[in-house]
Amino acid sequence: APAPSKPDTVFWEYKAKDGGVQGPFGSSQILGWMSQGWFTGENEVQMRRVAAPSAAAAAAPSKSNADELLDDLSDDEDDAKEELPGKWRPSGSIERGEFLGASSQS
């Protein structure tokens, strides 16, 4: 049985193949699409973490700035390619823990 769903606290935007920015979408929606084969392999897209939509912002933990900083500091692969505004990253390089709100630490 699926675990009881709790409100998303991590949100994402992605760049569609036509270059249009889509979102924000909660992590549970993104992970659901990934389990169906979207945003992986040939369907990989550029993705970035964004602030919660204003309705959910009050309920979201206030550590998002720290998470963003940790994401930026651990973003070695992106630096080798190209500095992109807003820290867009290949969807395949984002670890599951980041979708669940864990910061990537080494």
**Mean pLDDT score, rounded?**
75
Query: Cα-atom Rg, whole angstroms?
Result: 14 Å
What general outline do the C-alpha atoms trace?
Answer: globular
In angstroms, what separates the terminal alpha carbons? 33 Å
Name a few traits of the molecule.
106 residues, alpha+beta, four-stranded antiparallel beta sheet, 4 strands, 31% helix
In short:
The protein has 106 residues and is of the alpha+beta class. The chain contains 5 helices and 4 strands.
Q: Can you offer a commentary on this structure?
A:
With 106 residues, this protein is of the alpha+beta class. Helices cover 31% and strands 17% of the residues. The protein has five helices and four strands; from the N terminus they run ββαβαααβα. The longest helix has 10 residues, at 64-73. Mean pLDDT is 75; it is low at 75-86.
Helix and strand topology:
Blueprint: E1 11-15, E2 21-26, H1 27-35, E3 46-50, H2 54-57, H3 64-73, H4 76-81, E4 89-90, H5 96-99
Antiparallel strand pairs: 1-2, 1-3, 3-4
